[in-house]
Amino acid sequence: MQTIENTDAFKALIEDIKTSTKGYRDPLAFGICRVDLGQLNVEKTLQATYPLINWDENFGSAAIFVRALEEQGIKVDFTNSEAIYTINAEFLRASLCAFTPYADEAYGNAHKNIQVVSALYSQIMNSGSLEGEFKITFIFDDAPLQSVEASYLKLYAISQAKVPLRDINLNGAFGALPNVAWSQGQPIELDYLREFEIELKLSNEYPHIDFVDKFPRFLQHIIPQDNTRILATSKVRFGAQLAAGTTVMPGASYVNFNAGTTGSVMVEGRISSSAIVGDGSDVGGGASILGVLSGTDGNPISIGKNTLLGANSTCGIPLGDACIIDAGLAILEGTKVGIYPAELKKIMEVNTNANMEGEVFKGKQLAHFSGIHFRQNSLTGEITASRSTREIKLNADLH
Predict the structure, then answer these.
(1) Each residue of 127-141: pLDDT tens digit?
(2) Same domain membership, residue 192 and residue 131
(3) According to DSSP H, which parts of 168-225 are helical?
(4) Model confidence over 72-85: pLDDT tens digits?
(5) Choosing from 82, 149, 189, 268, which is the catalytic residue?
(6) Which of 141, 32, 149 is nearest to 81 (CA)?
(7) Are 246 and 394 contained in the same domain?
(8) CATH code where residue 390 lies
């Protein structure tokens, strides 16, 4: 690729790439990643690390990368939902030639793709060829996942809040991601450990295994906000999304992938996959928000703002704002909940879109309601709901 001298020439090049490349279309997402390959199956990708991801943005950079691949004899397949290609020094050199008009701005906020290409090119020039360890991934459609590289790109998009929770298609991720042993953030093939178990143990080189899973941990890939605290690395899975001000305590807490918070939240319980917790809420010690595979008939659960889930409680229905489930209480879709007429009237005053009559309701009939306090009569065992009169406030110094 010839060196581009000015921004007008750069724009003309982008237009030429888009009009002359057969089947060209802008990607939904793309990025350059470093891949960890199998120790036994050396062509198998175990993990993909992206220093930068682009989601529905920076289409000029995507076009340059397409042209740089073409010059290496690689035709990008625009017909598939995702495409992954190995890159080399020539790819990086060609890209840098095209990015010349913006080179001086590479270390600002506007041209991070140039910074990635420049840093990687310098690394390769200083240490020799690293071909096979770096790839570029394009996602053209939000379709079920087919590869490790595309799966990681989407998980990055969620954890970096490039997309809202539950907003993109993660089907196929469990099939695409291999189950591996993780040691100090690095994936190791289980087949490799089995094959060389004797030699590794006799030579005292058998690695310390932190855990075995398809997903790495959140902090292995994501730098959290300054006022976000995660007190144990095992408590948040990669692909979770934590808003600024969230605190995840040790103990019984856990945040699964495609789940998380939308504001300052205290997490001392379990936020299962696809569950979302709103600003100012408190998931008490050992409390559990059910996931889509845990008895909610596939309905994902959202918890509103300023809501308290008491210690060891279970929430199996979506809740609105300012709700309380008392400690140890399970509110599921089929749970029978009694509401006395005076309390029902107060609840209806808050939830103006609802029109309910009666004194006993199933939990799912109260889904999405705000201002409800669920409690259990200690003498009769009856579960009742009343208008919540407590204001849930988190300690501002902690969040």
Answers:
(1) 766 666 999 999 999
(2) no
(3) 173-176, 190-195, 197-202
(4) 999 999 999 999 99
(5) 268
(6) 141
(7) yes
(8) 2.160.10.10
HEC-encoded secondary structure of 291-352: CCCCCCCCCCCEECCCCEECCCCEECCCECCCCEECCCCEECCCCEEECCHHHHHHHHHHCC
Residue 107 has a pLDDT of 56
CATH assignment of the domain containing 185: 3.30.60.70
For residue 1, being part of any structural domain is answered with no
Q: Are strands 180-183 and 186-189 parallel, antiparallel or unpaired?
A: antiparallel
Verify that 113 and 228 share a domain, yes or no: no
Mean pLDDT of the region 217-237:
96
Could you give the CA distance from residue 149 to residue 142 in angstroms, rounded to a whole number? 14
Give the domain range for residue 188: 179-216
Q: What is the CB neighbour count within 10 angstroms for residue 382?
A: 13
In b/e form, how buried is each residue of 123-140, taking b as 16+ CB within 10 angstroms? Answer: ebeeeeeeeeebbbbbbb
Instruction: Give CA–CA dist 301/317, Å, rounded.
Output: 6
The residue type of 218 is: F
Asked if 45 contacts 35 with a C-beta cutoff of 8 angstroms, the reply is yes
Q: What is the DSSP string of 152-179?
A: HHHHHHHHTTSS-TT-S--TTHHHHSPP
Query: Looking at the domain assignment, is residue 386 inside a domain?
Result: yes
Contact 214, 180 (CB under 8 A): yes
Q: Answer whether 0.85 is exceeded by the pTM.
A: yes
SS3 of residue 68 by DSSP: helix
The number of angstroms, rounded, from the C-alpha of 70 to the middle of its chain's C-alpha atoms is 32
Q: Is 268 a catalytic residue?
A: yes
Q: Are 281 and 140 in a shared domain?
A: no
Among candidate residues 244, 325, 316, the one with its CA nearest the CA of residue 282: 325
Number of domains present in the structure of the chain = 3
- CA-nearest of 390, 373, 292, 391 to 327 is 373
